[in-house]
Amino acid sequence: MTFTFSQSQQITPQLALQVLLQFDKAINSALAQRVRNRVNFRGSLNTYRFCDNVWTFVLNDVEFREVTELIKVDKVKIVACDGK
Amino acid sequence: MANSANTNTVPKLYRSVIEDVINDVRDIFLDDGVDEQVLMELKTLWENKLMQSRAVDGFHSEEQQLLLQVQQQHQPQQQQHHHHHHQQAQPQQTVPQQAQTQQVLIPASQQAAAPQVIVPDSKLIQHMNASNMSAAATAATLALPAGVTPVQQILTNSGQLLQVVRAANGAQYIFQPQQSVVLQQQVIPQMQPGGVQAPVIQQVLAPLPGGISPQTGVIIQPQQILFTGNKTQVIPTTVAAPTPAQAQITATGQQQPQPQPAQQQAPLVLQVDGTGDTSSEEDEDEEEDYDDDEEEDKEKDGAEDGQVEEEPLNSEDDVSDEEGQELFDTENVVVCQYDKIHRSKNKWKFHLKDGIMNLNGRDYIFSKAIGDAEW
Questions:
Q1: Range(s) of the domain holding residue A49
Q2: Which residue from A15, A45, A83 is facing B28, i.e. has the nearest CB?
């Protein structure tokens, strides 16, 4: 979206990048501080990949269970960076 | 209200993130000499995109839809007093404090429709009106003050005050306090239910910039940003991942010591060794012992034969799933951090944290996720 703004010359690409970086920080802290819920899931693992300390999984027929609701998907890709 | 927890927390969180980001970048914008108005446009565009994607329901702009509904119920005229409660509002949300933004309907003097048309907003309003009433229910109470004073405020998370002014003819304006500058205008097509609006919106949808696509998986760029505790990486998950996937799959599909591209295009490229090498024995490893000269002579002989034998072999080589499976971009995604990934034989256990999920088009968030899967 910030690139749309860049294209229309309303903000420079540099500025767009700054906004994105700021978003990174904000979403990071928001997730760390403000979100406090837990999810369980179960499914079958189709593929797994661990490269550059990033795990990428593709799961099939997964059920995501939160306290309040249940979500079923045929396929989900999980990308996870190191949390430490 | 089974869905209340998630539909309540996610919009709230996103809203607060938007506020935080906008406020944090405001300084940067001003330093760069960019007008405040652009910042407001950014914010509105952001919110509109979120609404569009339907990844989250019940959002900032949805309060504007409430205004629309109110207007639809009443004649388009200048309204002095209007009080509208949404009974559907869930208990948590009837409390218009804290993180919830409070929007107030204000009559303003009727003005001509503004030239600027912001398409997503129109579409959103149409969409929300037509279908999802429950989303509208998450907004706070609407109230009109006595008199015409445009001092109605939206109290956002960060305490930033915005004013929403809505003319009877449907034009909306957002003011910042202490400035009488109109920051944004949105034109909403005539206030008629469903059917009339639909064709208008379809036409208007056409000139949408190319960056916006109706697919939820693609719209929101910030969601594609991966973060770690220490560093940030921008990974367009649907784009970057497939390329290593392809490279790996082609690598594992090959067992012969040949340039991979060459073997991929079997029909086009003559196989000069391997099964095509008539001089070789059954065990292909032995080829490596041959002299280069010998191979060269026998290449020509074996070339044509190699093609025929090549194809059936090649097609059997590929055991893996179709690569498209990984490339499909509306696939459900989870972007998070991992605490621990464990495996026993073929039983995997996942301990994940701080993640955003997009499942079936909707966004979810978790601070911890634990999962099991069998490979």
A1: 38-84
A2: A15
| Owner of token pair 């012992």 | B289
ipTM of the complex: 0.87
Instruction: Quote the number of domains for chain A.
Output: 2
> DSSP H helical segments within chain B, as ranges?
4-31, 36-53, 62-73, 119-130, 133-137, 197-205, 216-219, 237-240, 242-253, 260-264, 292-317, 324-327
pLDDT tens per residue, range B50-72: 887 766 665 555 455 565 566 66
Is A13 in the B-facing interface, judged by CB distances under 8 Å? Answer: no
What is the length of chain B?
Answer: 375
For residue A43, the chain B residues in CB contact (below 8 A) are 371, 373
Nearest C-alpha neighbor of A46 from the set B332, B263, B221, B8: B332
Tell me which residue of B166, B151, B179, B176 sits closest to B121, measured CA to CA: B166
Nearest to A76 among B41, B332, B375 (CB): B332
Q: How far apart are CA B341 and CA B347, in angstroms?
A: 11
**Do B17 and A77 count as a contact with CB atoms less than 8 A apart?**
no
pLDDT in tens, A8-59: 767 778 878 888 888 888 888 877 888 888 899 999 999 999 999 999 999 9
Task: Report the DSSP beta bridge partners of residue A45.
Answer: A59
User: E-strand spans in A1-84?
Assistant: 38-51, 54-66, 70-82
Say yes or no: A81 and A60 in one domain: yes
Contact with chain A for residue B333, Cβ under 8 A: yes
Same domain, A31 and A44: no
A31 and A48: one domain? no
The type of residue at B331 is: E
